[in-house]
# Entry
Amino acid sequence: MSSDIAGLLDLTGRTAIVTGAATGIGEGIARTLAAAGARVVVADIDADGAARVAAAIDGSSVVLDVTDADACASVLGHVGGATGDRVDILVNNAGSYHEAGSILDQSVDSWRRSIDVNLAGLFNCSKPVATRMVEQGDGGAIVNIASVDGLLPCLGTGYDSAKAGAIHFSRSLAVDLAPHGIRVNAVSPGVVPVPTLDKMHAGEIEHFWPSDPSTSGLMGPLMKQRSSNVPIGRKGTPADIAHAVLFLVSDAASYVIGQNLAVDGGWTLI
# Structure
């Protein structure tokens, strides 16, 4: 392989912050970016999980609640590379399925929590990092992890609406920051089993899915059929999502801005 081609995916010397990276898709992204040469800051509300991942990839970890705008400004306004003075990549992965379910079961507070974590958190994290990137003066890359549920209804008005907002937030932010050489894109994962979802399906974590699927179209036969009928014939993995993120933050995607890349095995095609 040409060294020029291989170099397009080389992140050596760059610092990346990945939120929600203590497990699941976020952990996969952190590991992949580190393997590509980046210095990775693992940011998560789960301190132990973040420290575990950071230790495995020779990175660093910070405790971060993305719904706390002041904390995001304080932490992400300073954390970075070995000297703490630089950030080149931000992956806004932190999100939550906990509030998924029918509007008949969901409280106003539950709706707000879903929007706060899955949409407002993108703003809270992007603002301080974008400010630093502008001050650095040599561009950067931001990738927001949205969802195919932002394209087709699936898990409820709170989660689905927040993820749809994440896609358009990415487009708007891309136009906003393009003059500074900061590229913003989104990735929408399809059916990817992760520990949180597995625990919700097993009843170990609270959710608002109706016990009787006939009372809501969300978890009824149509939705279950669609989720199990992925054209490529398998469910996705965190690595599938991480590879898409690597492309978007790398020089291979230097002319790509404001796009939403559905990594779903064809889920949104049927």
Notes: The two ends are 37 Å apart (CA to CA). The chain has nine helices and seven strands.
